[in-house]
UniProtKB/TrEMBL annotation:
Signal peptide: none annotated. Keywords: ATP-binding, Nucleotide-binding, Transport. GO terms for molecular function: ATP binding; ATP hydrolysis activity. The keyword Ribonucleoprotein does not apply. This is ABC transporter ATP-binding protein. The chain holds residues 1 to 235 of 316 of the full protein. Residues 5-234 form the ABC transporter domain.
């Protein structure tokens, strides 16, 4: 299958001298759900931030749908939707205006029919005119996904989408992410939870101390390493 994202020999050493990523190679297939699994400080957010053009790598190259993400970050970034760990939106704005504003930032023509469909898909239609501060925590998380989808990206990054949420909300998020994939979006999520990788992903990458230790089809990985061994590896 054709790669939509190629990460080649990407390293990052922060100013403090800390090596957060060490020669990472990764190919993401169009249309898959890929889970990047690793403990705190493994380098997951750093890798996502580099791909999204937020952090500059020390070495390496990244191609997003054939576009060089370091030399032509705008071309690459317009193909990516990012849902960061933190809820980062203007709490005084409405859901619908947040999406329209976000789409405009990417220079995309208005397309209310598309934005309405995203709102419906994420069960936010009834809340489209609500101020974000009025929404529950679960809804705010869905707004972050809606915002990330507003410019019709081909790849959606979800950085620890279910960290700190209860079991029922986690299941809702999994359903929603599965639905987005069915619509053709390539999904890359980071997680600490093996259950999440097992439930959601087609393939799983395990990262620790800045090194991508392995990338496997989920079924192969789960067979190779029992849950207990994986838990130990992730401590
Ligand atoms: P978590 O699961 O806790 O979010 P992570 O796998 O996303 O962790 P990163 O946030 O990428 O890990 O951090 C990787 C390493 O780089 C950590 O040791 C972290 O302290 C360090 N680091 C991250 N950002 C910076 C920065 N701006 N300056 C210096 N060091 C940083």
């Amino acid at each position: 299958m054709q790669s939509i994202l190629s990460v080649s020999q990407v390293s990052k050493t922060y100013g403090s001298g800390h090596k957060a990523l060490d020669h990472v190679d990764l190919e993401i297939r169009r249309g898959e759900i890929f889970a990047l699994l690793g403990p705190n400080g493994a380098g997951k957010t750093t890798l996502i931030s580099i791909i999204c053009g937020i952090v500059t790598p020390s070495t390496g190259t990244i191609l997003v749908d054939g576009h060089d993400a370091i030399r032509h970050p705008r071309e690459a970034r317009s193909r990516i939707g990012l849902v960061p760990q933190e809820i980062a939106v203007d709490m005084f704005s409405t859901v619908a205006s947040t999406m329209r504003f976000s789409r405009g930032l990417f220079g995309k023509k208005p397309d209310q029919a598309y934005l309405d469909q995203v709102l419906k898909d994420l069960s936010l239609w009834d809340k489209r005119d609500a101020k974000i501060m009025e929404l529950s925590g679960g809804m705010k998380r869905r707004v972050m996904i809606a915002k990330a989808l507003s410019h019709q990206p081909e790849i959606l990054f979800l950085d620890e989408p279910t960290a700190g949420v209860d079991v029922s909300l986690r299941r809702d998020m999994w359903k929603m992410i599965g639905k987005l994939r069915e619509q053709g979006t390539t999904i890359i999520l980071t997680t600490h939870y093996i259950e999440e990788a097992e439930e959601m992903a087609d393939r799983v990458g395990v990262i620790n101390k800045g090194q991508l230790l392995l990338v496997e089809e989920k079924a192969v990985l789960m067979k190779k390493l029992g849950k207990r061994e994986m838990d130990i590896a992730l401590v």
